[in-house]
Design brief:
The structure is a homodimer of 460-residue chains.
Chain A (H helix, E strand, L loop, with lengths): L3 H11 L4 E2 L2 H6 L13 E3 L4 H14 L3 E4 L16 E4 L6 E5 L4 E4 L5 H10 L2 E2 L12 H7 L6 H4 L6 E7 L5 E5 L11 H5 L8 E8 L1 E2 L3 E9 L2 H13 L6 E6 H10 L10 E9 L1 H15 L4 E6 L3 H12 L1 H8 L2 E8 L5 H15 L3 E6 L4 E8 L6 H18 L18 H4 L2 H14 L15
Parallel strand pairs in A: 2-4, 3-4
Antiparallel strand pairs in A: 1-2, 5-6, 6-10, 7-11, 8-9, 8-10, 12-14, 12-15, 13-14, 13-17, 16-18, 17-18
Helix pairs in contact in A: 1-3, 9-12, 13-14
InterPro entries (chains A, B): FAD-bd_oxidored_4_C, FAD-bd_PCMH, FAD-bd_PCMH-like_sf, FAD-bd_PCMH_sub1, FAD-bd_PCMH_sub2, FAD-linked_Oxase-like_C, FAD-linked_OxidoTrans_Type4, Oxid_FAD_bind_N
Cofactor (chains A, B): FAD
Keywords (chains A, B): FAD, Flavoprotein, Oxidoreductase
Amino acid sequence: MLEPRIIKALEEIVGDKNVSTEKADLICYSYDATQQKFLPGVVVHPGSTEEISRIMQLANAERIPVFPRGAGSGFTGGSLPTKGGIVLTTERMDQILEIDQENLVAVVQPGVVTEAFQQAVEKVGLFYPPDPASLKFSTLGGNVAECAGGPRCVKYGVTKDYILGLEVVTPTGDVITTGGPTMKGVVGYDLTKLMCGSEGTLGIISRIVIKLLPLPEAKKTMLVLFDSIDGAAQAVSAIIAHKIIPTTLEFMDGRTIDCVRQATSLQVPEAARAVLIIEVDGDREFLDKQARRIAEIIAPLGVVETRIAETPAESEALWQIRRSVSASLRKVNPDKFNEDICVPRSKVPEMIRRIDAIAEKYAIPIVNFGHAGDGNIHVNIMIDKKVEGELEKAEKAIEEVFKGALALGGTMSGEHGVGIAKAPYIPLEITEQSAAYMKAIKKALDPNNILNPGKIFLDN
Amino acid sequence: MLEPRIIKALEEIVGDKNVSTEKADLICYSYDATQQKFLPGVVVHPGSTEEISRIMQLANAERIPVFPRGAGSGFTGGSLPTKGGIVLTTERMDQILEIDQENLVAVVQPGVVTEAFQQAVEKVGLFYPPDPASLKFSTLGGNVAECAGGPRCVKYGVTKDYILGLEVVTPTGDVITTGGPTMKGVVGYDLTKLMCGSEGTLGIISRIVIKLLPLPEAKKTMLVLFDSIDGAAQAVSAIIAHKIIPTTLEFMDGRTIDCVRQATSLQVPEAARAVLIIEVDGDREFLDKQARRIAEIIAPLGVVETRIAETPAESEALWQIRRSVSASLRKVNPDKFNEDICVPRSKVPEMIRRIDAIAEKYAIPIVNFGHAGDGNIHVNIMIDKKVEGELEKAEKAIEEVFKGALALGGTMSGEHGVGIAKAPYIPLEITEQSAAYMKAIKKALDPNNILNPGKIFLDN
């Protein structure tokens, strides 16, 4: 519990109704998508940059940890108040401040929900590509803090690639701006990209300057069933080798197909051991030709069946198989560890084989799908925590999955970040020397270790 | 002069023939494209990461400043040995280590010349887009350190967008790797992008992991003459609004055209007060249609003449007008300050008007061309340093140009960096608080201030 005078000081900054110590409220802000729970001492809802700055100044003076939070949809516990203290939510700061149609730049507050922003820019013919699965509720501030990805990243890049500038409240409460509305800029160190993916440990994002693209005229969806994961992986490489970068190249492995087949009425032939959902976008009249070219290119690679959508409704039907995965998995086992390793694209089949071997070794179902074009595999380790020993087995399996990805030149996380969930595994990927440099940066910016302490590096 | 024991220690690290204190050699490494000169105490040519590491350890132990250098083609003095000490060149580390055609990733040493690398990847159907004007001699290590740009950046982005990972020798001599060969990765802070554009002040780049694209099948060049800079600027916005992002959107203002007309035999009608060179790339059969669409879109915007190249030779002829600019300028005045401000695209005409007013105020010719699609204007302030008072006038004019760009939401530099040339103007763009954070990062990584001291921030 925080002392009453601290609560009073916070109320003076943001107003009584924007500070809560009610048990019910604290519980609401105690968890995220990891389903771990840590109760904060207080939840504060600032309405302005100035208020965030004053909260950080108070927190530094009183040495109270602050945990910034968007929508709490993260998969690695980046927003969890692991040391109590203050949860600082950006929910009230949810305004789209500007959409500059001439320069293809938008300025937003951090609490804007990703999908709401996408719809707003699409209404005027513009396009914000990053599309994390959480986009219906995740906020742009959270997306920037985690450097969110999504299916479209194979063609369009990740959140970081669209962030031109930021206003940031530093861990000590200063307000700085980084970057700006220009397409280029090389004056001073790139604090913008440093903040992207720093998981709320180096600053609180209070305003975001976003680069937009023209909205593609149309898109076309294909669903291709392969007789092996190798065929699907070769198809990905072959398409790109033919100078086509599709908007999405989503894959599902054989185990995922089995889950979907068991749990739904979707028709998937037994011979299908891998699925690719391929979407291309651009000039309408060019798309039919591209879809035909793709079908030709991949034909020799063990294709069981190709379905090409001719209408938006047909496209939606093809995506149904992908969208049914989450619900299907729940029928396998109640608890899920959702990892998101990333390997060089060509290593996907080898990685899937390694994961299959790990699943067999520990007798745990592991189901894989994700972004084949990026080599970004969502590894779903399905257990029942109530069964004794399952959790321990899962933890061992996860470590082996990470080691396998790293051995293939990959990374433990393509999109989800480290937070607390992957922090224990950090030494597998980041050498002590690299970690020392990262911690030195954290210490330089946050000398009192107030902002989101214990994240990424547990000893930070 | 450095003590003989230091020279001896350096010779032990890199071998006798890779250390030079000969006056002629010192002079060769004393200048860059700024034409300022600072004599180093010694020039060292390491051949490996290990050797760079040992040099940095020695330099720290002895408190000798180290100035890393690629080809010395920078425009802002980033590689100049302003405090004597050691010039560390990466010329010997010039190997392309790998071109992974399946994953579209290359690994190179820092001394590889940009154009040589582009040719090597194009030979196997791949593409490295960043194309700084210096590409025939500049090195990839230097390109990364400065975050080089070029005409193609409007479509393809800058150097930073292609750097997936680095091996870096830190200022204290540790060797760390950042990022890796995957398309995504969010584990730990993004030291890769922090190093990009840090102008050799935060680490010495010893290996670079580069993202490649499939080489576009073909390109098509158009040259369009406009009766005003406003028409050209509107054309840029109109093309992008029609969902076409050309590969290049290069512009030249009226004063540039006058210079070219006077100095060459190129035929440019008197009515032309602005030029756009527009290039589109992609699928061959799509390009004719795109060129026609562009011609239609821009027709109402004061077009004096449109020339569309039908062959590579014709394309080369159209580029001739742009390539003749540098030589033409020399006839205006012998000395040139070459700035590269960047403003939001729509502000280009307003910025050109401001520059014209500044040129008139100081009675100095200022000639503008550059990358209109990015709003990145190369501002060439032409003087004769031998004429008394001209240098002072130029300096005042430069400051006014910077202030004008910043007032329009722009930046002092889109591509060239700060180095020492723009360091005195840093307070115009970077607030004291932001600067404090940048300096804190420098200090955290380089506690003895050994690596490229006094760059970007003169007091760093």
